[in-house]
Amino acid sequence: MASSATALAATTAAPRRAPSRSIAARASARRASSARASSSSSSSSSSIDDAAVAAAYDACAAATRASSATFYFATALMRPTQRERVRAIYAWCRALDEVVDGAETRSPADARRELDAIERRLRALFDDDDGGDGASSPPSSSGSSSSSPETIALADTIRATDGMSPEPFLDMIAGMRSDLPAAVPSSGAFYTLYCYDVAGTVGLMTLPVMGVAEGYGLDDAIPPGVELGIALQLVNVLRDVGEDAKRGRLYLPLDAVHAAGLTAEEILSGAVVNAVDGSVDARAEAHFARARVGIKMLPPAARLPVTAAGEIYGALLNKVRANGYDNITRRAYTTTGEKLRALPGLAARAWFGSRA
């Protein structure tokens, strides 16, 4: 895996458009078509029995818990149906991430072929939902296929949820492709677009599952949802600098690295303890602030878990600060007890924030 500053700064891929409200328009069209395709969807879903679907959702819950205790905790505050569907989406995203991580032990070309196979399966899921033939791809090199738990659960989620669109899923795949090899856009709009691809898209994927409050449409809630995803990604980046560096990867925006008087090589080699100053967490805070306006746009049942996700990740950000930005030798985290003690305050913020 290349680890030089040149490789890390490479941005050869042509820039793509940022997310826009047109996604909501496409989602509305999908809601209209879902009724027409309902008979085809129900007949195709019969090939997998209820027990297999339930087992797939259970596997997605286990994968979520193993991968992110914070996200698992936040989704535990959702209604059961919302919870299992959001965790199915998360597990699908994690499967993508594992393809990229696996590229460290095999060629990027192999990983790209696997991402291509995942994209074909994804398109088949949405074609199936629209009454298409639902043709599946063969198993990938990792063994993942149309019969993998995350694919079965995601297929059920797509069939059962009005307004889901393939665009954010495809955008995430595009973001993962840009991560082969570890080449992250260096600064500005390119870095923000990368964060949208790999994290902001999650807000668009899950929004139809959670729904919106009366008086709002999906297009109103899209911008805050994207902002929250980007904010969470920036916190993850700050928290995981040390772990990523051990794997020869750097996800910090290089303009912030250079502004701190550092080079990529210094961080990757462990020659420094403090990877950046407060510039990256300031960006995260700005995204959090823009995300909070969306709480009132969510239905009451979704406000607490979304508020919890933002606040717990905000607490992680505070711990990075408390560690003196030592994100090389120390990894910030929140304990289960800290999360539980925060619940009353989170509930209050979810309620009063919704009335702002």
UniProtKB/TrEMBL annotation:
EC number: 2.5.1.32
Keywords, comma-separated and alphabetical: Carotenoid biosynthesis
Record Pfam families: SQS_PSY
GO-annotated molecular function: 15-cis-phytoene synthase activity; geranylgeranyl diphosphate synthase activity; squalene synthase [NAD(P)H] activity
Keyword Acetylation on entry: no
Catalytic activity: 2 (2E,6E,10E)-geranylgeranyl diphosphate = 15-cis-phytoene + 2 diphosphate
The UniProt record lists the keyword Cytoplasm: no
GO biological process, one term: carotenoid biosynthetic process
Disordered, as annotated region: 1-46, 126-150
Composition bias type Low complexity, residue spans: 135-149
Family statement drawn from the similarity comment of this UniProt entry: Belongs to the phytoene/squalene synthase family.
Name of the protein: 15-cis-phytoene synthase
Organism per entry: Micromonas pusilla (strain CCMP1545) (Picoplanktonic green alga)
Source lineage: Eukaryota, Viridiplantae, Chlorophyta, Mamiellophyceae, Mamiellales
